[in-house]
Amino acid sequence: MSMTPPTPIRRHRLLEAIWGTQPGLGRLAAVNHNIVGKRFMMTAFVFFAIGGILAMLIRAQLARPGHVFMPPEQYNQVFTMHGTVMMFLFAIPMFEGLALYLLPKMLGARDLAFPRLSAFGYWCYLLGGSFIIGAMLAGVAPDGGWFMYTPLSSSTYSPGINADVWLLGITFVEISAISAAVEFTATILKLRGAGMALRRMPIIAWYFLVTAVMMLVGFPPLILGSILLEIERTFGLPFFDPARGGDPLLWQHLFWLFGHPEVYIIFLPAAGVISTVLPVFARHRLVGYNAIVLALIAMGFLSFGLWVHHMFAVGIPHMAVGFFSAASMAVAIPTAVQIFAWLATLLKGRPRLDLPMLYLLGFFFIFVNGGLTGVMVAVVPFDWQVHDSYFVVAHLHYVLVGGFVFPLMAGAYYWMPLVTGRMPIYHLGRAAFWLIFVGFNLTFLLMHLTGLLGMPRRVYTYPAGIGWDWLNLLSSVGGFLTAIGFALFAVDMLMQRRFGQHAPRNPWGAESLEWSLPLPPPSYNAASLGPVESRDPLADRPDLGREQAAGQHYLATPRHGWMETLGVEAVSGRPDQLILLPQPSLVPLWTSLATALCFLAVLLKQYWLVGVGVPLVLGCALAWLWSMGLREDPAPVPIGHGESALPHPGVASQPGWWGMALLLLADAALYASLLFGALFLWVVAPGWPPPALLGFSPSLILLALAGLLGAPLAGALGLAALRRGRVGACALLSLLGAGAGLLAAAAVAALPLWHGAPPASHAYAATALVLALYVALHAALGTIMALYTAARCQAGYVSAMRDLAPRNTLMWQGYTALCGLAALLLLQLWPWMAGAGTTP
Amino acid sequence: MAALWWVMFFMATAILLGVCAVALYTLRRERRGRGLHVGRFVAGWGVAFPVTALAVLLVIALRTGEGMLPKPGPEGALRVAARGQQWWWSFTQWDAAGNPVHSAGELHIPAGRAVDVHITAADVIHSFWVPRLTGKLDAIPGHENVLRLRADTPGIYEGQCAEFCGLQHAQMDFRVIAHPPEAYAAALAALATARPDPAHPGAADFAANCASCHGTDARAKSAAPNLAGLAQRGRIGGGTLRNEGQESVLLWLRRHETLKPGSREPSHAALDDATLARIAGYLETAR
Predict the structure, then answer these.
(1) Which of these three, B136, B168, B192, is where a domain ends?
(2) Residue ranges of the Cytochrome oxidase subunit I profile domain (chain A) (predicted)?
(3) Which end of chain A offers a freer environment for a tag, N or C, measured as fewer CB atoms within 10 Å?
(4) Which backbone phi and psi does A170 adopt, to 5 degrees?
């Protein structure tokens, strides 16, 4: 490795040759976070514009009473799509893009932990979003409201393809949310600069970490709900149909179990932007870092205990509702901690009213207003009055526009010099601010009153002369002002990119790592990765940018064409491995196209195509995984500053292990939602207990247990053999585990199929079947993984040191066994316990 | 309830203006905040203040909510039933003898007395909301919810469906008519006999074309809106039209597909104008 260090220019050329993306069609293979992050943000902005146009259509319709601008079927599609686009295609992906782009730069890494996963997520987002927009252009957009309450969204009352577009399209897009959440969590925990202990992380990384974990737990209930509703619509299995033991309230629970955390998933990243941007313009370090970290962890937990406040008017017992009311108020406390920490930062500093600061002041007014009306709607009797009225419409726009859009616009002006290397042009940005601020308040402040006067949401028209006319007209005027403001903002961004003055390095005098980079940053970020000694690395080393460019720090010398970044111990931030990132690849695109084929096949009811699509997805995924790893044990290599580290394939805590663990966390959240659903129906739904319970079958149970427990046992023995260096034995035991997985899949699936009532007859039979299929699917996937492990052993990718494949397979098999045991208990023991007294 | 709103409103306004004033104040001064004790500031305003204010609010909220629940009381609440369907409300009142009186679009209650509305849904989720009387409660298939309300003074109270329920969610209004307590029994009795005149020439047309779905006898349930007392109703079609007599009914019969597209009422294109006019005339006698 000893060679003369290259000059900065030569180092730049060498690194660019390794990290750069090919031009032309090569762009489709891009996995670099600079490119994928920008793609995410630009696509999200396009969807934001579409959602905005839909909003203008709504305001045009409601401007006058009895206005016949659109027929009701079109209006219902428009407002459903407005909510859907803004929530799923704008807010969440915009956060994903921002985090993709910023995280490596702020953490002092060169890319994220799984660059190909980012690319895959982007393609899923783009394709899923395009389905939904395409359906709208074809006139078959979803029209049941963005929360798709059943039975309105059931096949009886929404027979068309519209509801399927929503369920399948959104689930497809959610793949990108889950993959982003896995990506961010693993990246924040493992891919940081040397010395960046958790307590030294830039505060926004804490926000992104909490958000990502919330996404892992919060999105699966919605994905499960969508799958169940799509199964009900397609195959008639009742989960939500009260005539057959289902309950429409189950959908509401699953939806809001996702939907409320979703609000904080949207707010927290934006709050992270505030905590990052505000101190720079206050010219004072953020006050109360520890208090804020505690507050946002508290918010993360509390946000999962609030969902019922969307359901105060469904007739849940008052004391239960009171609990959720208290929790909903409690979440105001961590919010207040942040607000007052920001105010204290401003008070301590000498704030300057630059453009980002102007948008932050707008945030204070709008978001605090939305937060306070949030406390009001947490008051149960008050909510009974304003629920589903325009008061709530006003409240949610204050929270989401105040809590997400304004901070993000502040962030846009703050980070645009980083992205484009150019400074903002002030006049347009100020004009845009005032138009948006005045227009927004005109639209939505009045809407509180419209709601208090009794106007329900989602009506396509209203009668004249009951006091709503002038309020709606002014709201419409305000809406168009806001839209002009956003258009001006977009023009401003383009103008800045084209005509802005070139920005000097670190134009705002910030102290976080992304401003150590040249503007705009090259594909590899920093030519060498600087050490981190405090929360404000640029305050410690004002010259860090030049030092990094001069190659004075970690990973300064490119070698073997490797795409290198540092892996650190999660807590201390000490380097513990050298992470080799994967090259650009078309595999993410192919995988997402194969996934799209599966979704389209279900949407168009061409089920035979699923039989083509699923093997294609599996093939792509295996090809993806196969292309990574090393065929011989790595040795420690020098990483600079006189230290050395082992390349990640030889390290236990490598990102791939984290990826699997985090994926299983999301999977477990889905399974827990399914168990919750099964028990909820049993306890709450009308029409229980079911007419017939699942027959008791000792032989099938024994076979299932043998398979479920045998697979991880074989995996564990294989791993033990591998530790003693016996790769061949590991391969053989993996094959044995594969067989056990097949046995488990067959036995578990046979249980309801042979011993259950027809699944369409009752929700009990339907949930039993879905539980069993969930376990069987996992056992079958475990078999594929075990076969893959055996093949990896044979191909020389596995050794006592390089043991990721058998370890991850074992983790999967162990998880499957636990799920299987829970399912068996629920299917065989619980009916007997719960029904022993009532069934003869 | 109203007092609770005003307290929340003024508290919230004060907090909002306070926060914004502090934020603006920081822009206009030299470093006066040096003496600020950050820990106390954040703990005081970010924790102690909201904890106290919210605790008080929670207690008041729970007590207020508890007081609104349908609980057995000394006087006993009157039972009525409301059933939501796409896109109209059917109601059932019971007279003193316990016989049902069915109506559509108008719920009759006595003023000055607690009334328990037993709310159900026939198809999708709806929500029963009379803003001036009390909060809303959802009508959910498979569930029965009970809403306690009380009209202190006699009068007409507008109501509407508050949960999006499909194409014509906007045209799903109803009215609660609160009668003076002493006149309630008579009002129900009048409704029970407000059948159209069987001798009217339109009776045969109605029987041939409408009666398979619509009843005209308030004592019997009907699949489509019960038309007993139609001539006295304020509105037609879930609030689509003001009921100004025969002309309105005729307009509805001719043009309901454009006035309220998607409603379950079949097209009357096969019926000539004279028939429709006779039917409208017949219904005009339902008073």
Answers:
(1) B192
(2) 13-534
(3) C
(4) -65, -40
Between positions 48 and 87 of B, the ones with CB within 8 A of A are 49-51, 54, 57-58, 61-62, 64-66, 68-69, 86
What is the rounded CA–CA span in Å between residue A247 and residue A229? Answer: 12
Alpha carbon distance B101, B200 (integer Å): 24
Would you tell me how many other CB atoms lie within 10 Å of the CB of residue A2? 5
Chain B residues 203-232 within an 8 A CB cutoff of chain A: none
Question: End-to-end CA distance of chain B, in Å?
Answer: 38
Q: How confident is the model at residue A840 (pLDDT cuts 50, 70, 90)?
A: very low
pLDDT 10s digits, A527-555: 999 999 999 999 999 999 999 999 999 99
Which of B20, B34, B52, B62 is the best mutation test for A, with the most CBs of A within 10 A?
B62
The mean per-residue pLDDT over the stretch A59-80 comes to 93
Contact between A339 and B19 using a beta-carbon 8 Å cutoff:
yes
Task: Note whether B94 and B157 are same-domain residues.
Answer: yes
Per the document, the length of chain B is 287
Range name among A166-175, A243-252, A424-433, B76-85 with the lowest pLDDT average: A424-433
Q: How far is CA A125 from CA A120, A593, A662, in A?
A: 9, 11, 20
Name the nearest CA neighbour of B45 among A360, A366, A264, A344: A344
CB A376 within 8 A of CB B6: no
| Domain residue limits at A781 | 689-831
Partners of residue A376 in chain B, C-beta under 8 Å: 5, 8, 12
Query: Does a structural domain hold residue B179?
Result: yes
Among residues B192, B226, B260, which one ends one of the domains?
B192
Residue B90 to residue B107: CA distance in whole angstroms = 8
Residue B153, CB half-sphere, CA atoms under 13 Å: how many?
A: 2
CB contact set of B282 (below 8 Å; sequence gap of 6+): B196, B197, B200, B201, B202, B203, B205, B206
A456 closest CB neighbour out of B54, B160, B262: B160
